[in-house]
Write a structure and sequence with these properties.
The complex is a heterodimer of chains A (about 240) and B (about 400). Chain A is of the alpha/beta class and about 240 residues long. Chain A is built from 9 helices and 10 strands. Chain B is mainly alpha-helical. Helix content of chain B is about 65%, strand content about 5%. In chain B, helix 3 links the parallel strand 1 and strand 2. Chain B folds into 2 domains: about 260 residues, no CATH class; about 120 residues, 3-Layer(aba) Sandwich (abc type-2 transporter like fold), CATH 3.40.1710. Classes of the chains: A alpha/beta (about 240), B mainly alpha (about 400). The interface between A and B is medium-sized, with 31 and 24 residues.
Chain lengths: ~240, ~400
């Protein structure tokens, strides 16, 4: 479960995220929507304990992000961007192994887990290839495997399908559904409305750092008398466009 | 901060950088091969130049003062003073003769030099040389010395003819003897080696430092790393250790390169200025010198890490870190000529200067425990300050996430 309690972040005089409060239930896929600069990435970075909130806090799997940031990171799988962040000079195996070691996993467990992930993602053919020599799709699979090597309870994903082709996007969506089935709590941001509509149990729209509204898509459609997510999005975050 | 996390980061960074041909090449491979090339070319060139100035000094008489008597006088009197001097055929144009290597020096004599010599009057011997050519400009000294000897002999003959003891003109007889226990080449080594080591220790980690934070930011691998369990300090120390390893590896590879140059041509590493030998090493000072050097490397590794964290991209990191070179080069060159006895106490307190001073001291066979201990203590403070700078950059969200 993810619980945001008055989460606020200021950069100098600019308030990037303002008093954000909502809850993501266990085993739920929750979509975070907003225009560029709305504060989605800042929110996710605060939840990932990369940025320190100016005020407010959040709890992930019951752990406070300010009191126990290291413990939070150990329980959370984070992926910012679709396939970026791999060490090109390390093999896929070494990339995943490194994150397993950083998350305090025993060597034997890492080995087993990598094999399991390689089977699940179909990575056996390129597991020992250097990441720099992989195709975008292969890199994307490796990135996902690395993010969940320590079997986290919570997944934070910032635009995971950004820049991916249709086939690769479908694989991400399948991955998210599988994770949900395994009982993971998933918070992800996206610009692709169809993807959000298809995957998310509930959504939150943020506009200029403030929570515009939250609920299931159907609840929000009824409340704002709209029939599409695009329309709803423009209504809540479009500055009257 | 956990040691396990530090070592995980450290081992991964080492593996990653070792696989980076660019960093490995510039930090380790290049010095091993570049040093022998530099020393053999520069040292060999200097040795050749020195040889050209002191051996086979060809002297020609200018045509306008030529006479068979003048030619004979030069031949008999100058060649007798110095075996390396040879009087060659007369030449018309001194500049052309020197530049076409017909002679290193050209001289002219007064036309009536014979009469003046006969009448015990002074005559003029004018030396033409080209200072832009070391073989000519450098040979003037040898010719002057031969002429001085000739003057002495002629003066002696004249005094004896007058019945005066020539010793009356020499109330003090000067005798010199070099009692140095070290080889002549040690002085050159004391000038070059401390400077090279201090500079390399200070800048050797730059390729690794640039890659480890600024490079990671650019490749977008830094943010995922920060989302893992280890604290930022564990990540920082892991990277810091890697930079240290590379800065010392670059020193070791450079010393290996210098050793290679020495094995190929021992005179090359003293730039042809004599042989190395007769070191009297004080082990206590040597150990303190190594500690000061290690601490200098650690100080600069911390600074490099701070600068690399501040930089937005690899290129920006390279630009900022290259400025660090000036911080090292200025004190290194300004103290190059200082000899061990000239080292002042304050020099042990200043980074870079402290390492250079310590090395000069040890190579010169001197001891100054007060200076060396002061250098160690102040260096520890500098290490702490540079690490604090790196840590404050690593904690600062503004610098950490800017791209």
């Amino acid at each position: 479960m993810i619980e945001l309690i008055g989460l606020t972040k200021k950069f100098g005089n600019v308030t990037a995220v303002n008093n954000l409060s909502f809850t993501v239930r266990k085993g739920e896929i929750f979509g975070l929507l907003g225009e560029n600069g709305a504060g989605k990435t800042t929110t996710l970075r605060m939840l990932a304990t990369m940025l320190k909130p100016t005020s407010g806090t959040a709890r992930l799997a019951g752990i406070d992000i300010i009191e126990s940031p290291e413990e939070v990171r150990g329980r959370v799988g984070i992926l910012f961007g679709g396939e970026s962040g791999l060490y090109d000079r390390l093999t896929v195996y070494e990339n995943i192994q490194y994150f397993g070691e950083l998350n305090d996993m025993p060597v034997k467990e890492i080995k087993k887990r990598i094999q399991k992930l390689a089977d699940a993602f179909g990575m056996n053919d390129f597991l020992n290839k250097r990441a720099g020599k992989l195709s975008k799709g292969m890199r994307q699979k490796a990135s996902f495997a690395r993010a969940i090597v320590h079997n986290p309870d919570v997944l934070l994903l910032d635009e995971p399908t950004s820049g991916l082709d249709v086939g690769a996007m479908r694989e991400v969506q399948t991955f998210l559904m599988n994770q949900k089935e395994e009982g993971k709590t998933i918070l992800f941001s996206s610009h692709t409305m169809s993807e959000v509509e298809k995957l998310c149990d509930r959504i939150a729209v943020i506009h200029k750092g403030v929570l515009a509204d939250t609920g299931t898509t159907n609840q929000l459609f009824q409340k704002y008398r709209t029939q599409s997510l695009e329309e709803l999005f423009v209504r809540l975050a479009g500055d009257g466009r | 901060m956990k040691w396990k996390h530090i070592m995980t980061v450290f081992k991964k960074e080492l593996k990653d950088i070792v696989r980076d041909r660019k960093t490995l090449f510039s930090s380790i491979v290049v010095p091993i091969f570049l040093m022998p090339v530099i020393f053999l070319l520069v040292g060999g060139g200097t040795a050749r130049m020195s040889e050209e100035m002191t051996t086979n000094i060809t002297v020609a008489l200018s045509e306008d003062s030529y006479s068979p008597a003048a030619q004979n006088f030069l031949k008999e009197s100058l060649e007798a003073q110095d075996d390396e001097i040879t009087v060659v055929d007369p030449v018309e144009d001194p500049w052309e003769a020197i530049n076409s290597k017909k002679a290193k020096l050209v001289v002219s004599l007064d036309r009536d030099f014979e009469d003046k010599l006969e009448n015990s009057e002074p005559f003029t011997l004018k030396i033409y040389y080209d200072n832009s050519l070391s073989r000519s400009g450098g040979a003037v000294g040898a010719l002057r010395s031969a002429i001085n000897k000739l003057n002495g002999i002629i003066a002696e003959q004249r005094l004896e003819a007058l019945g005066i003891n020539p010793e009356l003109l020499t109330p003090v007889v000067v005798e010199t003897e070099n009692i140095s226990k070290t080889g002549d080449g040690n002085m050159m080594l004391m000038m070059l080696l401390p400077m090279i080591i201090a500079m390399l220790v200070a800048v050797g980690g730059i390729p690794a430092a640039t890659d480890l934070v600024a490079g990671e930011k650019e490749r977008m691998t830094f943010e995922p790393l920060l989302t893992t369990r280890p604290s930022r300090m564990s990540i920082l120390i892991g990277k810091y250790l890697t930079i240290n390893v590379f800065s010392f590896a670059s020193v070791i590879s450079t010393l290996a390169g210098i050793l290679l140059a020495f094995l190929i041509n021992p005179r090359s590493i003293t730039m042809g200025m004599g042989q190395i030998g007769g070191f009297s090493l004080d082990y206590g000072s040597a150990v303190l010198c190594v500690i000061v050097t290690l601490l200098l490397g650690m100080t600069f590794s911390g600074l490099q890490l701070a600068i690399s964290t501040y930089a937005r991209s690899f290129k920006e990191g390279q630009t900022y870190l290259s400025l660090l070179m000036f911080v090292v080069i200025i004190p290194a060159y300004s103290t190059m000529m200082i000899m061990p006895n000239d080292i002042q106490l304050y020099m042990y307190l200043i980074p870079v200067l402290n390492t250079i001073s310590a090395f000069k001291l040890v190579l010169g066979g001197l001891t100054n425990y007060t200076g060396l201990i002061l250098a160690v203590v102040t260096s520890l403070v500098y290490v702490a300050l540079s690490l604090l700078a790196a840590a404050s950059m690593f904690r600062n969200e503004k610098y950490l996430f800017r791209s």
